[in-house]
Amino acid sequence: MAGLLLAAGSGSRLGRPKALVEFGGERLVDRGARTLREGGCAPVMVVLGAAEAEIDGVSTVRNPEWSSGMGSSLRAGLDALPSTVDAVIVALADQPLITPDAVRRLLETREQGARAAVATYRGNQRNPVLLGREHWSTVYALAVADVGARPFLRTYSHLVTSVECQDVSRPDDIDTPEDLERLTGILEGT
Asked: 3-state DSSP call for residue 146?
Protein backbone atom coordinates (compact mmCIF):
# COMPACT_ATOMS: atom_id res chain seq x y z
CA MET A 1 0.00 0.00 0.00
CA ALA A 2 1.65 3.19 -1.18
CA GLY A 3 1.29 6.60 0.37
CA LEU A 4 1.04 9.71 -1.79
CA LEU A 5 1.47 13.15 -0.22
CA LEU A 6 0.38 16.15 -2.29
CA ALA A 7 2.67 19.07 -1.39
CA ALA A 8 3.09 21.08 -4.59
CA GLY A 9 1.16 24.29 -3.92
CA SER A 10 2.60 27.77 -3.48
CA GLY A 11 0.53 28.63 -0.41
CA SER A 12 -0.61 31.92 -1.94
CA ARG A 13 -2.85 32.84 1.03
CA LEU A 14 -0.15 31.77 3.47
CA GLY A 15 2.55 33.72 1.66
CA ARG A 16 4.96 30.78 1.14
CA PRO A 17 4.91 27.16 -0.04
CA LYS A 18 3.11 25.09 2.58
CA ALA A 19 5.46 22.13 2.18
CA LEU A 20 8.27 24.14 3.79
CA VAL A 21 6.27 25.63 6.68
CA GLU A 22 7.47 24.60 10.14
CA PHE A 23 4.82 23.00 12.34
CA GLY A 24 5.56 21.27 15.62
CA GLY A 25 9.28 21.35 14.94
CA GLU A 26 9.20 19.86 11.45
CA ARG A 27 8.26 20.95 7.95
CA LEU A 28 4.73 20.10 6.85
CA VAL A 29 6.12 17.94 4.04
CA ASP A 30 8.22 15.89 6.49
CA ARG A 31 5.31 15.56 8.92
CA GLY A 32 2.95 14.35 6.17
CA ALA A 33 5.46 11.83 4.83
CA ARG A 34 6.14 10.55 8.35
CA THR A 35 2.40 10.18 9.01
CA LEU A 36 2.01 7.99 5.92
CA ARG A 37 5.10 5.88 6.79
CA GLU A 38 4.11 5.43 10.43
CA GLY A 39 0.58 4.59 9.31
CA GLY A 40 1.94 1.64 7.33
CA CYS A 41 2.38 2.94 3.77
CA ALA A 42 5.33 1.86 1.65
CA PRO A 43 6.54 3.23 -0.61
CA VAL A 44 5.77 6.87 0.20
CA MET A 45 5.91 9.41 -2.62
CA VAL A 46 5.66 13.19 -2.34
CA VAL A 47 4.51 15.46 -5.16
CA LEU A 48 6.36 18.79 -5.14
CA GLY A 49 5.99 21.83 -7.36
CA ALA A 50 6.31 25.39 -6.05
CA ALA A 51 9.20 24.43 -3.77
CA GLU A 52 11.91 21.81 -3.84
CA ALA A 53 12.68 19.75 -0.76
CA GLU A 54 14.84 16.83 0.25
CA ILE A 55 12.74 14.40 2.30
CA ASP A 56 14.23 11.38 4.01
CA GLY A 57 12.81 7.97 3.16
CA VAL A 58 10.54 8.98 0.30
CA SER A 59 10.61 9.40 -3.46
CA THR A 60 9.71 12.80 -4.82
CA VAL A 61 7.78 13.59 -7.97
CA ARG A 62 8.03 17.00 -9.60
CA ASN A 63 4.77 18.37 -10.96
CA PRO A 64 5.64 20.97 -13.59
CA GLU A 65 1.95 21.91 -13.82
CA TRP A 66 1.55 22.51 -10.06
CA SER A 67 0.12 26.01 -10.57
CA SER A 68 -2.94 24.54 -12.33
CA GLY A 69 -4.11 23.07 -9.02
CA MET A 70 -4.31 19.92 -6.95
CA GLY A 71 -5.75 17.83 -9.78
CA SER A 72 -2.47 17.94 -11.72
CA SER A 73 -0.54 16.92 -8.59
CA LEU A 74 -2.81 13.95 -8.00
CA ARG A 75 -2.41 12.89 -11.64
CA ALA A 76 1.40 13.30 -11.48
CA GLY A 77 1.51 11.21 -8.31
CA LEU A 78 -0.65 8.43 -9.72
CA ASP A 79 1.49 8.36 -12.87
CA ALA A 80 4.65 7.95 -10.80
CA LEU A 81 3.52 5.05 -8.60
CA PRO A 82 5.29 1.75 -9.29
CA SER A 83 3.35 -0.84 -11.28
CA THR A 84 3.54 -3.19 -8.30
CA VAL A 85 1.36 -0.87 -6.20
CA ASP A 86 -2.23 -2.10 -5.95
CA ALA A 87 -3.67 0.77 -3.90
CA VAL A 88 -2.65 4.17 -2.55
CA ILE A 89 -3.53 6.39 0.35
CA VAL A 90 -3.57 10.05 -0.69
CA ALA A 91 -2.97 12.76 1.91
CA LEU A 92 -2.39 16.52 1.82
CA ALA A 93 0.63 18.27 3.32
CA ASP A 94 -1.47 21.14 4.67
CA GLN A 95 -3.44 18.93 7.07
CA PRO A 96 -0.85 18.33 9.81
CA LEU A 97 -3.27 16.99 12.43
CA ILE A 98 -3.99 13.88 10.36
CA THR A 99 -2.46 11.02 12.33
CA PRO A 100 -0.93 7.65 11.54
CA ASP A 101 -4.00 6.14 13.29
CA ALA A 102 -6.27 7.52 10.56
CA VAL A 103 -3.98 6.01 7.91
CA ARG A 104 -4.01 2.67 9.74
CA ARG A 105 -7.82 2.69 9.82
CA LEU A 106 -7.92 3.08 6.06
CA LEU A 107 -5.40 0.26 5.69
CA GLU A 108 -7.53 -1.98 7.92
CA THR A 109 -10.55 -1.20 5.74
CA ARG A 110 -8.49 -2.22 2.71
CA GLU A 111 -7.54 -5.49 4.41
CA GLN A 112 -11.28 -6.11 4.92
CA GLY A 113 -11.86 -5.75 1.17
CA ALA A 114 -12.53 -2.04 0.56
CA ARG A 115 -11.18 -0.79 -2.77
CA ALA A 116 -11.98 2.88 -2.11
CA ALA A 117 -12.34 4.54 1.28
CA VAL A 118 -12.32 8.00 2.80
CA ALA A 119 -11.66 9.28 6.28
CA THR A 120 -14.70 11.02 7.69
CA TYR A 121 -15.04 13.44 10.58
CA ARG A 122 -18.50 13.55 12.11
CA GLY A 123 -19.75 12.08 8.83
CA ASN A 124 -18.01 14.63 6.57
CA GLN A 125 -15.64 13.23 3.95
CA ARG A 126 -12.13 14.68 4.12
CA ASN A 127 -8.63 13.15 3.95
CA PRO A 128 -6.84 10.84 3.67
CA VAL A 129 -8.38 8.80 0.85
CA LEU A 130 -7.69 5.20 -0.17
CA LEU A 131 -7.89 4.38 -3.87
CA GLY A 132 -7.51 0.91 -5.39
CA ARG A 133 -5.67 0.79 -8.72
CA GLU A 134 -8.85 -0.09 -10.64
CA HIS A 135 -10.22 3.39 -9.76
CA TRP A 136 -7.14 5.42 -10.72
CA SER A 137 -8.14 6.07 -14.35
CA THR A 138 -11.53 7.41 -13.24
CA VAL A 139 -9.98 9.54 -10.49
CA TYR A 140 -7.39 10.74 -13.01
CA ALA A 141 -10.07 11.84 -15.48
CA LEU A 142 -12.06 13.70 -12.80
CA ALA A 143 -9.09 15.40 -11.08
CA VAL A 144 -8.95 18.80 -12.80
CA ALA A 145 -8.04 22.31 -11.68
CA ASP A 146 -7.96 22.51 -7.90
CA VAL A 147 -10.00 19.35 -7.38
CA GLY A 148 -8.52 16.02 -6.33
CA ALA A 149 -10.47 12.85 -5.56
CA ARG A 150 -13.67 14.58 -4.37
CA PRO A 151 -15.59 14.16 -7.68
CA PHE A 152 -14.82 10.44 -7.66
CA LEU A 153 -15.94 10.10 -4.04
CA ARG A 154 -19.24 11.82 -4.81
CA THR A 155 -19.97 10.24 -8.19
CA TYR A 156 -19.06 6.72 -7.08
CA SER A 157 -20.18 6.95 -3.45
CA HIS A 158 -21.64 3.44 -3.68
CA LEU A 159 -18.07 2.12 -4.07
CA VAL A 160 -16.57 4.16 -1.22
CA THR A 161 -16.31 2.99 2.39
CA SER A 162 -16.51 5.76 4.98
CA VAL A 163 -14.06 5.41 7.87
CA GLU A 164 -14.80 7.59 10.90
CA CYS A 165 -11.58 9.15 12.24
CA GLN A 166 -12.82 12.03 14.40
CA ASP A 167 -11.59 10.33 17.58
CA VAL A 168 -7.99 9.96 16.33
CA SER A 169 -7.40 12.76 13.84
CA ARG A 170 -8.37 16.27 12.67
CA PRO A 171 -8.67 17.38 9.02
CA ASP A 172 -8.05 21.12 9.59
CA ASP A 173 -6.18 22.84 6.73
CA ILE A 174 -3.44 25.43 6.98
CA ASP A 175 -4.34 28.01 4.35
CA THR A 176 -3.60 31.31 6.12
CA PRO A 177 -1.23 32.59 8.84
CA GLU A 178 -4.23 32.53 11.20
CA ASP A 179 -4.82 28.84 10.43
CA LEU A 180 -1.17 28.11 11.21
CA GLU A 181 -1.44 29.93 14.53
CA ARG A 182 -4.71 28.18 15.44
CA LEU A 183 -3.44 24.68 14.59
CA THR A 184 -0.17 25.31 16.41
CA GLY A 185 -2.27 26.16 19.48
CA ILE A 186 -4.24 22.92 19.09
CA LEU A 187 -1.01 20.93 18.75
CA GLU A 188 0.45 22.58 21.84
CA GLY A 189 -2.81 22.19 23.77
CA THR A 190 -3.28 25.92 24.35
From this structure: coil
